Amino acid sequence: MLRRLVVCSLALVALGLMTAQAQVMGKIEREAPKLWPPWSQSPSNGFNFTVPQIDNVPDLHGDIVDPQLVVFFAGNQFMATAELMDAFRLEHPDVRRIYWETLPPGILARQIEEGAIVIGNLRIAITPDIYTAGGKRIRQFEEQKRFDRVEQYAQNRLAIMVRKGNPKKVLSLNDLGRDDVRVSMPNPAWEGVAALITNSYKNAGGEQLVDRIMQEKVKDGTTFLTHIHHRQTPLRIMMGESDAGVVWYTEAQFQKMIGNPIDFVEIPAKQNMTGMYFAGLFKNAPHAQAAREFMDFLMSEKAQAIFRKYGFLPPAK
Q1: How far apart are CA 56 and CA 26, in angstroms?
Q2: 28: in domain
Q3: Is residue 27 part of a domain?
Q4: Strands (E), the chain
Q5: Rounded alpha-carbon distances, angstroms, from residue 61 to 84, 152, 311
């Protein structure tokens, strides 16, 4: 009799957990259309045919036909770029048609080397005037003597992104090594930030934590390697596919700013890493004058105020 009561009790508990999980997943599915990118306002001067998950290109921006300026931004700045370009146009009204991308810097570098990018059935062959990235990528192009001018214009630090309310109670980097925490992690092949995140893991838990998250959990599927970390990680967390991921602080702050169900956990300074943003003006820039003006604008107080609004730190002195 006692055994039957225990079995019935366990069955009821399991049923309750399954029901609660189903309710949570149902809520996530109902919320999904509101959560999908691009998380920005689309241009109004044209017929809008954005279809979430089908025809939605959140990291290609502006005017691709006969542009007067082309900028390839390291993608994690996506939240600031539209405001940045609007402010630039106000100061330079002769430069109206601007095209820019906010893909990961490694993908942008491949696009530059290949001369084009292919997305679905679309091939875009366009030469950037300016490329922004972290120090390693910029140095690679500097060694090839590809730039006329390089400026360091902002900094950033890391944070742990979690779903609103932090249901898995992730309180530290070490918690990302837990069996029950599904991690979203940038692929080192595409994202320079992966090296900084790995160094933070090392600061928090040594090589053991690095191996746990980047080897063991990748093998068992509880660490997912992204291609577009600044888009995939927040979306995976909001859709219940991942529980946490280390991102740039600005990405987590932005998701909260726009009201998406995202929270973040601060990383102690002794474990955190700082990343620097550099802009390089290509020697063969097709729109050299506008590019020089934009490089000056990046260093101006107006541009710096926009970056600070979104949580970026000023450049190192």
Answers
A1: 24
A2: no
A3: no
A4: 60-62, 69-72, 98-101, 117-119, 122-124, 130-133, 147-163, 183-186, 223-226, 244-248, 262-266, 274-282
A5: 12, 23, 22
Is residue 45 within 8 Å of residue 64, measured between CB atoms? no
Count structural domains, the chain.
Answer: 2
**pTM (predicted TM-score):** 0.86
How far is C-alpha 35 from the chain's CA centre? 15
Q: What confidence tens digit (pLDDT) does each residue in 214-262 have?
A: 999 999 999 999 999 999 999 999 999 999 999 999 999 999 999 999 9
Whether 295 and 261 share a structural domain: no
Annotate 60-81 with b (16+ C-beta within 10 A) or e (fewer).
Answer: bbbbeeebbbbbbbbbbbbbbb
DSSP symbol at 51: B
261 close to 125: Cβ distance less than 8 angstroms: no
Q: What is the pLDDT of residues 172-200, one digit of tens each?
A: 999 999 999 999 999 998 888 999 999 99
Closest CA to 132 of 114, 155, 98, 115: 155
Output the six-digit token pair for 161: 């992104």
The CATH number given to whatever domain includes residue 176 is 3.40.190.10
pLDDT at 54: 76
CA–CA distance, 290 with 69 (Å, rounded to integer): 6
Token couple for 273 = 């890493």
| Distant-in-sequence, close-in-space partners of 307: CB < 8 Å, separation ≥ 6 | 80, 84, 153, 154, 314
User: Among residues 262, 257, 248, 245, which one has the least CA distance to residue 312?
Assistant: 248
